[in-house]
Predict the 3D structure of the following.
Amino acid sequence: MSTDSMITHVVAALAVVITAAWALGAAARRLRQPPVMGQLLVGVALGPSLFGLAPGGIRETLFPDEITPVLSALAQVALVLFLFAVGYELDLGRLRQRRAVTAVSLSGFVFPMLIGAALVVLLPGSFRAANGGLPVDTTFALYMAVALSVTAVPVLAGIIRDQGLAGSRPATIALAAAGVIDVLSWPVLAVCLIGGGEGSLSGWFTGMALTAAYVLFMVLVVRRALVRWLRRPGALSADPVTVAAVLALASAWATSALGLHVIFGALLAGVVMPRQSDGVPDTRFLRPLQETGGLLLPVFFTVSGMSVELDTLHASDLPLLAVLCVAAVVGKVVAGTLSARAGSRLPWRDSVLVGVLLNTRGLTELIVLNVGLQAQVIGSRLYALLVVVALFTTLLAGPLIRPLRRPAAPSAQACPRDGTDRAGDADPAGVRS
């Protein structure tokens, strides 16, 4: 395929992907689901499992194999920009919040992890059969533990807003706890992947040491340099988006060179980016990258969907799928419910609502699954199973929330996690070190 022909195909594919994401997102909202749910389904719909069944080779014409590397590169750029914004919005102060958030976040992270690891120990044969010959070892068990413990904070914020729960106590606790779970999940996933390809203990220690050195460099050197630069008169009159984009992309390259995924560098870059003096993210950095990443995220969903081959699943995989779905739901709902009840003495109805909210996976789970697939920790069959689990748990959120919800307090603020309302009203002056 010539360069001109490839450009033509890529442009056409982008138009189809973005339009389909918008249409299915609007349809999801009409069905009282978060719009991102429709975007998640775009990948599966345009993949070989559904669109590939269309007659006349339409999918092969629109998405020829030659453009897959280009779409994959665009998907990674979208992830880098989007996750930089996620990292910038992460409030690490939530780790020091009151007992209720601490109890819910720790139990909502640890209990599902234990369930995930226990499933690997109890059902090694089922996982070996579904994992396509890849090893079912300690690295795999730790990975499955993380895969069952994550909560999709951006999707959760959208569900809370759409369901009219913004400002309610259960939603506030669940959102803060989900942020802490995010903070805890990514480092554990990084530890899981460092040196895992070679299986060498010395390689693992070397990777850990290099990663720790890079984190210290970003926190102690890069962050301080950014603070000093941003405090200079007229610093922000230069294009702040360029600074943020270069930081995100360079950090993503660094972690990729260290043997990790680009997402870790993007998240770290967002975390070390200085906030304003009142602790609020600066919208001049946040919104352009957030909107650009969000516009291109459907490409990531599409590339992810191309790896979902439902026709490769066997009837023998159905029991494992059922076990994973039950374990995913029970782990989050039970942990969230009991810890919310014990930690803050919420009524049982509100405690169950906290657990149901934590069960939202969606985008974050899909990112974790893609990392595992690219690192060859999981195979394509198990990847397809886990994508179905992610979609199932996210679809389940709306029907379970509606009978549990209570009206939000009139004076309550909107969800802070999506970074639009709170950041938009902030005083842009000042940079917090």
Observations:
- Residues 318 and 385 are 9 Å apart (CA to CA).
- The mean pLDDT is 80.
- Residues 201-231 form the longest helix (31 residues).
- DSSP finds 18 helices and no strands in the chain.
